[in-house]
Amino acid sequence: MNLTDAIKHSGRPFEIPDASRNDLPELFIQMGFKKGAEIGVKEGAFSEIICRAGLKLFGIDPYLMYDDYIEPETQERLNQAMEKAASRLTSYDFTPIHKTSMGAVRDFPDGSLDFVYIDGYHSFKFVAEDIFEWSKKVKKGGGIAGHDYVYMAKRDKHHVHTRYVVDAYTRAFGMPSWYIIGRKEKIDGEKRDPYRSWFWIKP
After folding, report:
1. Is 139 exposed, middle or buried (0-12, 13-18, 19+ CB in 10 A)?
2. How many angstroms separate the CA atoms of 125 and 129, rounded?
């Protein structure tokens, strides 16, 4: 079952194991989407897949260490990632925005985007802010998606709360159907995302 067929099914959630996030850009094209934003670009690997499909993309990533930064990173490595993304995406319809997610969200009018893909910091505060605020920027009938549908508790303060936040949001706002993309378990011989993505169409 491809994503186009799968999203015709309803469920809370409906799992689509035989797909990966790399299938999302083609789905967006089939749905008539033209432009969107990715929150968290890093080296631009997934950004390139989105752009290669023919979509206009705004890439939101500050590439800066700051007080709340909880990823095990250094400023030097962030600078290198920014340079790699710039080199990789220079030939595409890609606009880098070097701001924090909540700094950049104010630059977009409500309903101005066809889709958003959220892959920023994964602790509760940041995931909740990203979903709540960036959802406003997506038009009705647009796509809201993100990476790392998982919960992981680590020994340091870098917990991954994405699954809890997505589950809470969809319940709180009565989402009639939404989708988890990818397999939970690794299957030998299949290439799948290490962590699953989540997706819904904005009512």
Report:
1. middle
2. 6
Tokens of residue 169, six digits: 């949001």
pLDDT digits (tens, 9 = 90+) for 135-174: 999 999 999 999 999 988 765 566 789 999 999 999 999 9
User: What pLDDT digit, counting tens, does each position of 110-144 carry?
Assistant: 999 999 999 998 889 999 999 999 999 999 999 99
Please give the Cα distance from 57 to 95 (Å, whole number): 6
Please choose, from the candidates 23, 52, 16, the residue with its C-alpha nearest in 3D space to the C-alpha of residue 177: 16
* Alpha-carbon span 35 to 28, nearest angstrom: 9
Q: Which of 190, 175, 186 is nearest to 198 (CA)?
A: 175
Cα 96 to Cα 32, 39, 178: the distances in Å are: 23, 11, 29
CA–CA distance, 144 with 137 (Å, rounded to integer): 10
Of 19-33, 68-82, 156-170, the one with minimum mean pLDDT is: 68-82
Rounded to the nearest 10 degrees, how much is the dihedral formed by the CA atoms of 153, 191, 90, 31? -90
Residue 187 amino acid letter: I
Alpha-carbon distance 11 to 62, whole Å? 36
Please answer whether residues 19 and 196 qualify as being in contact, where contact means their C-beta atoms are separated by less than 8 angstroms. Answer: no
Rounded CA gap, 42 and 84, in Å? 9
Which DSSP string corresponds to 122-174? -SHHHHHHHHHHHHTTEEEEEEEEES----B--SSS--B-HHHHHHHHHHHTT
